[in-house]
Amino acid sequence: MRLVTKTAELAELCRELAAKDFVAVDTEFMRETTYWPKLCLIQAAASGVEAVIDPLAGGFDLKPFLDLLADENVLKVFHAARQDLEIFQKLGGTLPHPVFDTQIAAMAAGYGDTVAYDALVQQVLKRRLDKSSRFTDWSRRPLSDSQLAYALADVTHLRDLYPRLRQSLEQRGRLSWLDEEHAALLDPEIYDTSPEKAWRRLKLRKTSADYVLALQVAAAWREQQAQMRDVPRGRIVKDEALYEIAEHRPKAAADFDRMRAVPRGFGNSRAAQELLRALERAFSDPNRPQYKYERPPPLPAGLGPTVELLKVLLRYEADANDVAPRLIASAGDIELIAASDEADVPALRGWRRTVFGERALALKHGKIALKLKDGKVAIEDL
After folding, report:
1. Whole-model pTM?
2. Cys-Cys crosslink for 333: which of 6, 14, 306, 345, Cβ 3.0 to 4.6 Å?
3. Which region holds residue 224: left if phi is over 0, alpha if psi is between -120 and 50, else beta?
């Protein structure tokens, strides 16, 4: 077991890893009681190299590893990468690149929607994962040998998984199918925790300018409080409280006491006073932005049956092509295709159009039909 606890050791490890074509990366972190994820372990493995890195070791500088993650010549392999990428983006100020997400690859290779890591390892590598340390408090020290071995196994399996998935996709001409998904995964916008953008995570219940402005202010205030105190957003106030605040727009401490979702006594807190001042500043600004809701055009009446038929066709084509339906088209895509042949959706572009889009349009225009044959869906040309 190679346990890295010193900067010099990490620099040597990273020199070895940088000489490889790809590096499998995994992390163990805690965030149940914090806003920011607390990185507890980093596991890295490449051909002939594997190690567990302890970022909680005193006086430890992660810069060599962060530099490796930014090295364009080394592919970084993750499974369900988003949370790992979020951690490294905060630590290094940039997203790791290039990347390969085996969960995305598995969808293109026919292993289902968002397949779990243990299920994928079992299906591809015929190995069963040891789950004995799943609920470890990774922030506690020292970690036992068995806990470290458990953590390392995750990334050594990932190292072995990647070539199999890549080869499968290359042989079937599907490697490029991942490009759009990986590009979306590396969009900096989804990792932006700027308080002023926090309201976008909430579903609007009303669209009037004043309601949206109050919700924007309240959401930004909560985000600032959560970041400053390093606690989950819900520990400040729940989403329901933000909706109430936006609805009633409190102007005094006593106004909070009449809100069901706001904790009793909240109005007397310093945080509540800050929120009241933020609301007052926003609404007293004559140049405040005016939110304008652009209602999407309504779908034509009577599309329900068409949408349902297209959903059946999607499932049929997904099964026939051994690819996860979610990777081909979303429910929203299906509705837009039902409404327009020129819908600006991924399902009508590139490989998705070949796999599904062309037949979806053919079904709409009566050029093909769906039927049951021996109890199974089949397609018939008309």
Report:
1. 0.91
2. 345
3. alpha
